[in-house]
Every structure is written in C-alpha cells, then in structure tokens.
Amino acid sequence: MKMNTLESEDSKSSDFSSTDEISLLVIILDTNPGQRILRDNPRTLTQCVDSVIAFANSHLMQKSQNKLVVMACHSKTSEFIYPNSDKPLDVRQVDGQYEIFTLVERTIKRNLAKMIAAESTALCNESLLAGAISMALCYIHRIQKTKPVGCKLNSRILVVTGSGDSAFQYMSYMNVFFTAQKQNVVIDVCALDQHLSLLQQGCDITSGLYLKIPQLQGLLQYLLWVFLPEPPIRPKLVLPPPVKVDYRAACFCHREMVDVGYVCSVCLSIFCKFSPICTTCHTVFKIPGPLAVKSKKKKMKL
Amino acid sequence: MVDEEDPREYRWETGYEKTWEAIKEDEEGFLEASVADIVQRAKRKRQAQKQKNTKLGMMRHLFLIVDCSESMSNQDLKPTRLYCTIKLLELFIEEFFDQNPISQLGIIIMQNKRADRISELSGNPRKHVKAIAGLNRTSLLGEPSLQNGLNMALKSLKLLPSHASREVLVIIGSLTTCDPTDINVTIDAMKAEGVRCSIVGLAAEVHICKQLASETNGTYNVVLDDSHYKDLLFQHVEPPPAAFCLESSLIKMGFPHQMVTEGTDEPLTMCMCHVDSVDEGSKLTTGGYYCPQCCSKYCELPVECRVCGLTLVSAPHLARSYHHLFPVGGYKEREFNNQVSSCYACQKVFGETEKQVYCCLKCEKIFCIDCDIFIHDTLHTCPGCATNSSVLQHKAA
C-alpha cells in the first residue's frame, strides 16, 4: 500500500517506522435521532453507519497492529459498540472476506440495533459528544497503561456528527480537549451538517483535522481521503486548508463575542461591560482606577 | 499567624507509626500489589483534601528563589542537588504554565550573599526554562542570603495590582543564611504585603524558614529523596487559596484574533515580542495575534501588550483554569459485589481482583480506581455526568 511505503521512507520520525507501534482509532459516531439530517431522512443513518464501517475496516486493513474502537453517542447515553464488552461474536469466514471485517460489521450493527431499540421516544436535539470523548480518553488511558513494554501507542479520536454544539457543554469540551492535548491524542472531527465552532477549536488544540463535508453522499470518500492517513503522514498530503479558528470569547452576560472584555479575578467569568457584582461568583468588585482619575480631572477644571 | 505550634512537629515523634503493618503480602507472597495499593490510596487521599468552592488566587505571580550557594553541590540528591533541582524545575515550569496559563513567574538566584534576578516576571515558559537550564554553568559560591532574595522578590511583587496573588517559592539547600540586617523585618514586610512564602528545604529543617512559611501562610517541607522532592514541588502547581487581603476586581483583557480578510493573504508585519530582543530578531511574518486596542502584533498568547498595557489572552486560556474552580466531586468508595460487569468509562472488566469500585454521587455510575484517579487528576470531567443530559442540565441550571 502506498501509505506503508510512505511510512518507511519517513526518516525524520524514525520511531514511526518501527513495527512495535499500535495505531488506535476511536470512532465516535453520533446516532442521536434528534439531529436534523436524521429527522429529515432516517435512512441517512444506514448510509452513515455503512460508510463508517467501511472506513473502520480500511483502518484495520492498513496494518495488522492497528486497533479499532467504535462508540455510539446517542441522545441519552454513549456506548462502546465495538469491540464487544463481553464475549465476541462467533464469526466464520464469509465469501472469502477477512473475518475481522465481518466481525466489525456484525458487532456494530447488532449493538446499534440493541441501543436504538432501548431508546425512549423523547427526542433530544443535543448530542453529548463531550461525554463520549471523555469516555474514549479514559479507554485510551487504560490501553496506554496496559500496553506491552516497548511498544508505542498512537491514538486518535474521530468524531462523526451531524448535530450542533452548544455552550452548555463548553466546560466539558475544554476539559477533554486539554486532556487530549496532554495525552497526545489527536481529535479529528467530520461535521455532516452544521459548522461546529467548539469542536473546531478542539481540533486546533490537539492538532487534528476539522472538515465540514459539502455533501453527505460522498461521506465515505471524505473519510478515506482526509481522515484515514495517520497524523504523521498528513503534512505530506494535500488536504483541505485549515480554517482560521476564532478564539474570541463570548461574554457571560449577553453571549456575544467580545474583543475587549472584563474578567473577574476570582472566577474568570468574562463580561462585556463593567458591573459592580460578578453574576457567577457574587463577588463585589471595587471601583476601577480610571473612574477615580476622571473625577479628579473634573475638580481641577472647576 | 503563629498562634499555635504544629502539634506533630517532628517526624520521629509521630511520623512513623508501624508503617510495616500497612504492607501485606498477597497470596503468592508478593508485596508489589500492596505497595501499589498504598500509592493509589495516598493519591486518593490527596484528592479528597482538595477543598471545593474556595476562593483561589488564580492570577498568580510567583517568584522562584533558587539557592545557588556552595551547599547545592552536595551529592545527596543525584547527581548533585543543583542538577536535580534544574531538571525538576524545568518540569515544574512547564506544568505551572499548563495549569495556570494567565499567571506569571520570575526566577531569582541566591549566591555568594547576593541575589540575582535571572528571569523577569513574565508569562513565557520558554524563557524561564532557558534561564534555569543556564544555571548548569554557574559556579556555586559562598553562602545564600535569604533576606536579599526575599527583598528582591518583594520589590517586584509590591508593584503588582491588588487582585494579583503574590507568591514566593524558595528552594534552599543551605542550612544557614547570611543576611545584611534583621530578617524578621523582611518577614514582617512580606506578611504586610500578603506575599505567600513557601519553602522547600533540601537539607534539614531550619527554624527561620519554618517561621517565614508559617507567618506568611505558606508551606515548609524538607525533601526525603528526589521523588519526594518532585511531589513537594508539584504541590505548588495548583493555585493556592486566595490570601485574605486579596482584592477582587474586574480586569480588562483583550481577546485578539487573527486578522483575516476573505481571499487575501495576511499582511507581512513584525511582532512586538521580538522587536528588541538581541538573540532572535523580529522577522516579517504573516500570522500572529493583534491587540484589539492598538493593533500591535504578538507571536503568542498570553502576553501583556507592550504598547497599551492590555492583557491579551485567548478564551481557551481562561477555560483551562476553570477546572480549578469547578472540580469534579469526589467519588465514593464501594465494596465490589458485582453491581456492574465493567468500568463505565474505560470498559475494564471487573474481575476477582477488584475489591473496591468508585461511584459518582451525581450520576451513580461505577468506575475503576485508575479511572477515578485519571478523572480527578487530568480529565476534570465525570464521563458519567457528561453523557447524562439530565445531570448535565441540572448542573448548568
């Protein structure tokens, strides 16, 4: 395969070409029925699942050491749907296909069906992706701890989602992004429907890729072209140019983006105007210096 | 505030309480499992000590005062006290700025009865690490002067605005200090200015250090070995509770963004951070952050604008500090009796070896001990609560 020849040629990152390397890919698939693309056409889910399975199998095909974990982020819960937590399915070879591929497909579909059947009817628009990523990070942390001595684990997380992100998960998002950065876990995001500004920041922090796909029909192609190559190879490929990330802060009082704001020294809440009491931690502030200077000037004029 | 003496004053009085009884052999006669157990228990205990909802001094201004006197050449820490200190301080500085992104640090060395500032108070970790690494080549001379070191730190810390948390961390290997005048006057001055002085001793306990620490609400510890040294040092990474005289105020800050106009490249400009530096000059580059007030450019954040004095930060810098203020609640230890088959977060299957599992009080999910420690030390988000919309919404409300 082309990828593998590229790897062995890569002399700069010499440790990358060693065989004792495991690439762990955690795919988080948003299966929340509340997201717009699924509400409009529930069959989209089948297409997404099929694409993700094909993509997952391609990852496994690249190297025998490659590891795969698939999680489903549903409206109420997040679950690991591959590998099975209890005993694996008994799979025989079908049509000459590699058994693992059949195992991946069957396990994912069966667990997903179980999950959807157990779902209550109440719809919830927001998918709790931050929670799913935090579970993935705990999983990666365990694998990292239990891996055999001398082998290297490269882990990354791919989030495939069609729902939006909202500010009420902001803190969880930031915590998982910084943890991922610390643990050298790359977070890639494939947005199916809406632009996700928070997850985009996460990609930037962990030096992953963010792509909002132009059309859903080509999902598998985008996945294979953009997200299949390992992060060390990516600089050698021509990928969609990085988008400039807006790191401006939203003020806590009006939720508007601010250029210059006031920050509470106790709880670090951001406000767009000066107020005497912090609404988050109820601290009373002293009147700032500049106001006092102004009054003095007036007196001098009199 | 030294109203009472610390009840367990000396280690030989209370510290050793039949420590061998805590270690038990497992079925095969190995000790490792039991030792690992003790280590994890100690970690959990430290987490439990973290108080919730205390006012913290988030904008820290810390001066590291490092002893570079003759006593630092002692080889009781391998290879030498100084070398060990340099290596640990490099790690400490990285971790400090990782956890306290809007804080500032400065470094002073005490040598031959003098104090030298080798790094000004600033928020750039690379500069400090470079300064610390450079200590390798200094010759270790004479005696240190604690008073001179403290005075130099105080001179800079005095000028800071009242909302800043002022701290001094002294690393001293010497058992003596050679001071020009009465050091008690300096200690009183530190106390009056609300400077928190903590000391890590490398040799043995010294009365004046203990007095300095207790008067200024700091901590004083003496290291046992290099791993204990690291532990003691890293205790200072977490922001301390705010000093009582710390005023709270709203601080004006700028949130710069990159200057992008659709379809065109960014203009070539020079940055303000390198404009007058000698070793690496300012280059014409495209990227960078522009001060929203005066439009001067900086290569990295956080920084204080040199032109208009505005503090420039990015939103994630602030967000990185939020976990100190809103920590995850402690998990409750439960006996394992097959409540669940695996850990909620990492999917580890609970087997025979598991005796205790840990339960979040809010979402009632069960975790293993490794996840418990990982969640509280690094992640700062409970995976159970974050995947449960009702708990999350309840928390947000």
UniProtKB/TrEMBL annotation, chain A:
Gene3D superfamilies: von Willebrand factor, type A domain. This is General transcription factor IIH subunit 3. InterPro entries: TFIIH_Tfb4/GTF2H3 (IPR004600), vWFA_dom_sf (IPR036465). GO terms for biological process: nucleotide-excision repair; regulation of DNA-templated transcription. One of its GO terms (molecular function) is zinc ion binding. It is found in: Nucleus. The keyword Phosphoprotein does not apply. Pfam families: Tfb4. The lineage of its organism: Eukaryota, Metazoa, Ecdysozoa, Arthropoda, Hexapoda. The keyword DNA damage applies. Part of a TFIID-containing RNA polymerase II pre-initiation complex that is composed of TBP and at least GTF2A1, GTF2A2, GTF2E1, GTF2E2, GTF2F1, GTF2H2, GTF2H3, GTF2H4, GTF2H5, GTF2B, TCEA1, ERCC2, ERCC3, TAF1, TAF2, TAF3, TAF4, TAF5, TAF6, TAF7, TAF8, TAF9, TAF10, TAF11, TAF12 and TAF13. Component of the 7-subunit TFIIH core complex composed of XPB/ERCC3, XPD/ERCC2, GTF2H1, GTF2H2, GTF2H3, GTF2H4 and GTF2H5, which is active in NER. Its main location: nucleus. Keywords: DNA damage, DNA repair, Metal-binding, Nucleus, Transcription, Transcription regulation, Zinc, Zinc-finger. GO terms for cellular component: transcription factor TFIIH core complex; transcription factor TFIIH holo complex. Belongs to the TFB4 family. Component of the general transcription and DNA repair factor IIH (TFIIH) core complex, which is involved in general and transcription-coupled nucleotide excision repair (NER) of damaged DNA and, when complexed to CAK, in RNA transcription by RNA polymerase II. In NER, TFIIH acts by opening DNA around the lesion to allow the excision of the damaged oligonucleotide and its replacement by a new DNA fragment. In transcription, TFIIH has an essential role in transcription initiation.
Automatic annotation (TrEMBL), chain B:
The keyword tRNA processing does not apply. Belongs to the GTF2H2 family. Transmembrane segments: none annotated. One of its GO terms (biological process) is nucleotide-excision repair. The keyword Lipid metabolism does not apply. GO terms for molecular function: zinc ion binding. It is found in: Nucleus. InterPro entries: C1-like_sf, Ssl1-like, TFIIH_C1-like_dom, TFIIH_SSL1/p44, VWF_A, vWFA_dom_sf, Znf_C2H2_type, Znf_RING/FYVE/PHD. PANTHER family: GENERAL TRANSCRIPTION FACTOR IIH SUBUNIT 2, GENERAL TRANSCRIPTION FACTOR IIH SUBUNIT 2-RELATED. Residues 61-237 form the VWFA domain. Keywords: DNA damage, DNA repair, Metal-binding, Nucleus, Transcription, Transcription regulation, Zinc, Zinc-finger. A zinc finger (C4-type) spans 291-308. It holds the Pfam family Ssl1. CDD domains: vWA_transcription_factor_IIH_type. Gene3D superfamilies: von Willebrand factor, type A domain (3.40.50.410), Zinc/RING finger domain, C3HC4 (zinc finger) (3.30.40.10). This is General transcription factor IIH subunit. GO terms for cellular component: transcription factor TFIIH core complex; transcription factor TFIIH holo complex.
